[in-house]
Design brief:
The protein is of the alpha+beta class. About 35% of the residues lie in helices and about 20% in strands. Strands 2-1-5-4-3-7-8 form a seven-stranded mixed beta sheet. A two-stranded antiparallel sheet has the order 6-9. Helix 3 links the parallel strand 3 and strand 4.
């Protein structure tokens, strides 16, 4: 075998190894690059209701974000909405961006908007019928929520419904916004009954 032939074989082996490494990295990306507390929040793209425009992480750069992935048919999501709205009512005027991305795929945007209005939601609701946000954020059910600091780092990841008006959550948001620690909530603000997250529907 000539030197040229030897180099051709070496190049072919390197090429095969590179393809194998790339393929393995793709299928194991969730294990190799988990989306968790302390990691950089992935970019996403979701549609503004009733518009042809989209929003992404770039639109919230440098801001404190509560990113909620939900669906109108999800019971636990409905249980969680009032506490999200209370959190936003208190901290929205102080700089908090609360973004709820609906992953409904068989519901019109008009229906999503009416649903949000019926619950008195005043925070931003976007739509991602492609479910791409679930893949990039590696969600496992609904609802799932990410608190993202102004530097773009995930500060809290919560699977299932939470009481976002709790003392701990309010303290976290206040800290990220650079505000004084809030006083404990009064008895009337006690959390609602606990609900389990809705699992993802099985793939067809």
């Amino acid at each position: 075998m000539t030197a040229r032939q030897q180099w051709t074989v070496v190049a072919a082996i390197v090429g095969v190894l590179a393809i194998a490494l790339g393929t393995g990295s793709y299928f194991m990306r969730d294990d190799l690059f988990p989306v968790n507390v302390g990691s950089q929040a992935p970019d996403f793209r979701a549609k503004m209701l009733g518009s042809t425009q989209y929003k992404s992480m770039a639109d919230y750069k440098g801001q404190v974000i509560v990113l909620n992935v939900w669906a109108t048919w999800c019971g636990p999501c409905k249980d969680e909405l009032p506490s999200l709205q209370r959190l936003y009512s208190e901290y929205g005027p102080k700089g908090l961006k609360l973004v709820a991305v609906s992953i409904d795929d068989y519901v019109s945007e008009d229906s999503i908007r009416k649903f949000a209005n019926n619950y008195g939601i005043s925070f931003e609701v976007l739509h991602d019928s492609t479910h791409a946000i679930e893949r990039v954020y590696q969600t496992t059910g609904y609802p799932e929520t990410f608190v993202i600091g102004p530097e773009g780092t995930i500060r809290k990841k919560w699977i299932g419904p939470d009481d976002w008006n709790s003392q701990g959550n309010r303290a976290l948001i206040a800290q990220l916004l650079g505000l004084p620690t809030p006083r404990p909530t009064i008895a009337g603000d006690a959390p609602a009954s606990v609900a389990l997250p809705s699992p993802k529907p099985p793939s067809p």
